[in-house]
Amino acid sequence: MPDKGQARLDNPVTKYPQVSPPKQDQPEPGLDAKLEPRADHGEETYRGSGRLAGRKALITGGDSGIGAAVAIAYAREGADVAIAYLPAEEEDARRVLSQIEAAGRTAVGLPGDLLDLEYRGRLVDDAAEALCGLDILVNNAGKQVFAERLEDLDDEQVETTFQVNILAMFTLSRAALRHLPEGASIINTTSIQAYQPSAHLLDYATTKAAINAFTKGLAEQLGPRGIRVNAVAPGPVWTPLQVSDGQPKDRLPTFGQNVPLGRAGQPAELAAPYVFLATDEAGYVLGETLNVNGGKPSP
Ligand code: NAD
Ligand code: MG
């Protein structure tokens, strides 16, 4: 007999309120601890079911925003988790590390700057040593600083954006191959900016298009070796990236309201796609970009 009741469903339009932030400005890197309104990383809501039991993950930029939500979800799914972050983000990192520990998993903090080539070169080995292995790499760290005019975008910014967003992915993914067993996953954070570049995010959007090509090409290369490479492409998500010069201040009050759901996403809404791509159930999924963007058409 079918159940006569109606299951309780979330309406995605009203699940979270529109983000109408008060005026705020943080230096780069922004902190979740100072973000207003606070973002949801699934602290109160994400329920695991052992989908990543015994797995070992390194998440760059795992201190805040999307990376923090992924770290909490991975731990609750049974994975040991190392997070990489900038030393200035220690306060955010501590909160995420304590969430991982509260889930009963090993939590490893690896502070450093991906612009420091020595740190970049040893990060993956350090994570694998601390976790006694590695089978998930989430390349999620990102730099986004708006510039309205090309004349305001100097070569130094272009270069650092490329270093953090895409060049580090080559180094970290290459290093991961020393550790990743068959069945392992690399998951890269790209963006809707890869296909719909904003005029004021030229350098950033260009790196995200590069990440898409990197993801698909590397997936073809590593597929035969049993390692899957995929990407997640978020739309507008309420994170400290946006208030630390990621967007012009006059755009923040309506941030994310131009998508079909009419609101910005919360980091917690990104976690499940990253979980899915890492699981064995996604074993036939590679070279894919999962768009999580509130309904904007994407290729
Ligand atoms: P976030 O600020 O919380 O995370 C970005 C992280 O990148 C920081 O926490 C920091 O640890 C790391 N990072 C930046 N520069 C670094 C450096 N030099 N060395 C080491 N780490 C560095 O913001 P987020 O929005 O959660 O960003 C995570 C990813 O999501 C980024 O790749 C971003 O491009 C992408 N993304 C975000 C949105 C959005 O709307 N928030 C949309 C699409 C894509
Ligand atoms: Mg951060």
Set out the fold topology.
Elements: E1 56-60, H1 65-76, E2 80-85, H2 90-102, E3 107-111, H3 117-131, E4 136-139, H4 155-176, E5 185-189, H5 202-222, E6 228-234, H6 240-246, H7 268-278, E7 289-292
Parallel strand pairs: 1-2, 1-4, 2-3, 4-5, 5-6, 6-7
Helix pairs in contact: 1-2, 1-7, 3-4, 4-5
Magnesium ion is lined by residues 29, 63-64, 85, 89, 92, 240.
Report on this model:
The structure is a single chain. By secondary structure, the protein is an alpha/beta fold. The protein has one domain: 3-Layer(aba) Sandwich (Rossmann fold), CATH 3.40.50.720. The protein is 34% helix and 12% strand. Helix 2 links the parallel strand 2 and strand 3. It has 7 helices and 7 strands; from the N terminus they run βαβαβαβαβαβααβ. It is globular. The mean pLDDT is 97. The termini are far apart. The longest helix is centred in the middle third of the chain and has 22 residues, at 155-176. Strands 3-2-1-4-5-6-7 form a 7-stranded parallel beta sheet, with helices on both faces. The site of magnesium ion has 7 residues, from loops. Keywords: Oxidoreductase. It holds the Pfam family adh_short_C2. Residues 31-46 have a biased composition (Basic and acidic residues). It comes from Zhihengliuella salsuginis. Belongs to the short-chain dehydrogenases/reductases (SDR) family.
